[in-house]
Amino acid sequence: MGKIAFVFPGQGSQTVGMAQELANEHADVMAVLHEADKKLGYSLSKLMFEGPQDELTLTYNAQPALLTASYAIFKKLEEAGITPDYVAGHSLGEYSALVASKSISFEDAVFAVHNRGKFMEEAVPAGEGTMAAVLGMTAGELEKVTNEVTETIAPVQLANLNCPGQIVISGSTEGVKVASEKAKEAGAKRVIPLVVSGPFHSSLMKPAASKLEEMLKEIKISSPTVPVIGNVDAKEVVDANEIEQKLIEQLYSPVRWEESVERMIDLGVDTFIEVGPGKVLSGLIKKINRRATTLPVYDIQSLQDAVKKLQVEG
């Protein structure tokens, strides 16, 4: 058996009821949720279990909720003796990966991502920025379009390089609109506007990055016990100072997910465990490399299935 990577989902995977079944069955999972409630000063667990969905989806709620659910599931995998050789996360999920690698404490991370969400919401006035998924173009082709629009009309850039033929663009509302039209003219199969509260992973997030930089100074960041594949450059991060810098850059840089997965495969990973709600990353990984084994773990049954499979193969 090859190496195992734990991958952690980002914003968009949140759903009402996440981690509830596990929390009902396991007191230690409920304890993790209560730890988050205490740190944030409001009942995040109630919002996770009961919603409403639109409130859970607010950036400053979705981010700590996803991190909390992912961490609770990670703890159960760890308890079963399943440990990763590498960890990575998509955008917000990078914080979950850092907690799993013992680089940042869970308490500090919950506090950090709640504030990160607030900074992201505040960076651009509502309606002035957006994102769209572009299907059926290469990064090079699409970057030509976004560079031209940025230079002549309004800022827009590549934000998430998710898998072959699926790239998200982000920037000013005008820039994204024009780039979407030009992408279709240049051969994109489809362009799907995303329902988001801001232009994440674009240069418009630089005000949020400045605030994040100040906040990260208050948090202890240690060197990870397991290499973290960073979003910014799809390389292993093993140094505490570098982690802080990369988390700041991550807010306004593209998420290089396709390259991150390819890097882990080059390092010998053949099994990816998606630790957290949903199966988004598992779907992307299959599009990047069909031979990779993907195991999404999000409830009791999927946890038991993954543990059984890995213990048999291990």
What does the largest sheet look like? 4 strands, parallel
Q: Outline, from the CA principal axes?
A: globular
Average pLDDT taken over every residue: 96
- Radius of gyration, taken over Cα atoms and rounded to an integer in Å: 19 Å
Strand content: 15-25%
Helical fraction equals 40-55%
Which strand order spans the largest sheet, edge to edge or round the barrel? 2-1-9-10
How far is it from the N-terminal to the C-terminal residue, by CA?
Answer: 7 Å
Assembly state? single chain
Helix and strand sequence: EHHHHHEHHEHEEHEHEEHHEHEH
Q: Which blocks of ≥5 consecutive residues have pLDDT under 50? A: none
Q: How many strands?
A: 10
Judged by helices, strands and strand pairing, the structural class is alpha/beta
Give the number of helices.
Answer: 14
Question: Overview of this structure, please?
Answer:
This protein is α/β, with parallel strands linked by helices and 314 residues long. The longest helix is centred in the N-terminal third of the chain and has 21 residues, at 59-79. The model has no long low-confidence stretch (mean pLDDT 96). It is globular, with a radius of gyration of 19 Å. It has 14 helices and 10 strands.
